[in-house]
Amino acid sequence: MISTKEALNRIEWAIKNIGIQTMQLKNSLGCFLAENILSPIDLPLFDQSAMDGYAIKLNEGNKFKTIGEIQAGDDASNVSLENNHAIKIFTGAMCPDSADLVCRIEDITEEKSDIVVAIMPDRGANIRRKGEQIKQGELALKKGHLITPATIGFLANLGITEVSVVAPPKVAILSTGNELCPPGQKLPLGKIYESNSIMLEAALQQYHVELIKAKKTVDTLESTITSIADLLSQSDILIITGGISVGDYDYVAAALEENGVEQVFHKVSQKPGKPFYFGTKGGKLIFALPGNPAAVLTCFYIYVLPAIQKFKGGSFEGLPSVELVSSSKIEKTNAREQFLKAYALGNEVRILEGQSSAMLHTFAESNAIVYLPAHTKLEVGEKVLTYKIH
Ligand code: AMP
Ligand code: MG
Questions:
Q1: Structural Rg of the chain based on CA atoms
Q2: Which residue has the least CA distance to atom 5 on ligand 1?
Q3: Sorting pLDDT into bands at 50, 70 and 90, what band is 223?
Q4: Which of 255, 212, 202 is nearest to 234 (CA)?
Q5: CA of 139 to the centre of ligand 1 (A)
Q6: How many Å lie between the centroid of ligand 1 and the Cα of residue 242?
Q7: C-alpha distances in angstroms, 359 versus 47, 139, 333, 352, 354?
């Protein structure tokens, strides 16, 4: 059986399928830019007032004749101020070339058609200069930039509606098991509510990855083969849950082989998730996770997430990790590496009760995963590698 590190290395090595795609800016959150973006315009496009106040042309004294107003959105290119003239102006409005500065409404008093400025700011004050944020043709964002809400706002500010990004993977999910019944229906005796697919879909959403299709299959070789064939034809990454262990009705490994998937590894020396399988077909990645829900989510965070990140053009990082001080003790060692559901607060982490791979309750109450190497005990106060989920 391989180690978790070896499993991660083999997955990272297998990811090659990176294409480029043009995408609507509004749908591009979480993608990586595939090329440099040069600014198509000066930003701002014209001198703008940064305040509500008066644009004034200086000459002598601090009294100015007012000659009208300029609202945000008005074209003020024909407005020309003479000496000791002022024009009322609002934040974001076009500032006339002839204005020396804008004084704040709070710093003036109005006297009929004149204003008197109590506190005179410096020349150029309160004017956002044309191109001061970025000039036309300058580098706005570099290739490889991760698109965040701020990125989307900035590019929209430049008038951009489409971006060229590293094509994100299309992901499909297959849940296997005769016992699975969709939540919302009456549960026949012997069946269980299916939770892996909705959980994985939520995890994909959290990382802005599109789920192409989710499907369920009963535990027969034929149905497993046809379900895999269908999903593989539509996806770049296929995540399968259940049916990859040693039971008589675990058909996933055989069905993958039947579909021409090349096994990269099967079984990792870890708890939970020992039966974890990874394979490839062309550039497609296939993760077959053991069905127990807590094992599914652990394997998603530890293996599928970094694969998705790299596939999207980012680095193979996975969850952020930190060294925290354990407030729990573990006396019993295990021959396998362990991922333990835990709760991190400040610089401490507490390992939760109920580590069975069937128990999602513990996972739902955790915010971190503690990694414990094989054959390791843990003392209170000892530092442990902790993956932060949220
Ligand atoms: P398996 O890996 O198929 O042997 O399944 C291991 C355990 O996980 C069994 O108790 C299954 O009933 C359960 N299980 C498998 N798939 C799902 C699923 N999609 N949702 C919830 N539990 C599941
Ligand atoms: Mg099963």
A1: 30
A2: 291
A3: very high
A4: 212
A5: 51
A6: 5
A7: 61, 50, 21, 11, 7
For 111, phi then psi, to 5°, come to: -130, 100
Does the C-beta of 178 come closer than 6 Å to ligand 1?
no
Tens digits of residue pLDDT in 300-334: 999 999 999 999 999 999 999 999 999 999 999 99
Q: Using pLDDT thresholds of 50, 70 and 90, give the confidence band for residue 18.
A: confident
Residue owning the nearest CA to atom 3 of ligand 1: 242
Which amino acid is present at 241?
T
Is residue 242 in contact with ligand 1, taking CB distance under 6 Å?
Answer: yes
211 φ, ψ (degrees, to nearest 5) = -90, 120
201 Cβ closer than 6 Å to some ligand 1 atom: no
* The ligand 1 atom nearest the CA atom of 197: 19
Ligand 1 centre distance from Cα of residue 135 (Å): 57
Structural element, H or E, at residue 92: none
| 304: its two tokens | 């599928």
Q: Which residues, other chains included, contact 229 with Cβ-Cβ below 8 Å and sequence gap of 6+?
A: 259
pLDDT tens per residue, range 357-383: 999 999 999 999 999 999 999 999 999
The region that residue 118 occupies, defined by phi over 0 for left and psi between -120 and 50 for alpha, beta otherwise, is alpha
Q: Return the bridge partners of 240, or none.
A: 174, 288
Cα 126 to the center of its chain, rounded Å:
37
d(CA 99, CA 57): 5
Q: What is the mean pLDDT of residues 55-69?
A: 96
- Provide the token pair at 299: 């394997």
Q: Ligand 1: does its nearest atom lie under 6 Å from the Cβ of 224?
A: no
* Bridge pairing between strands 337-345 and 101-104: unpaired
Reported pTM? 0.92
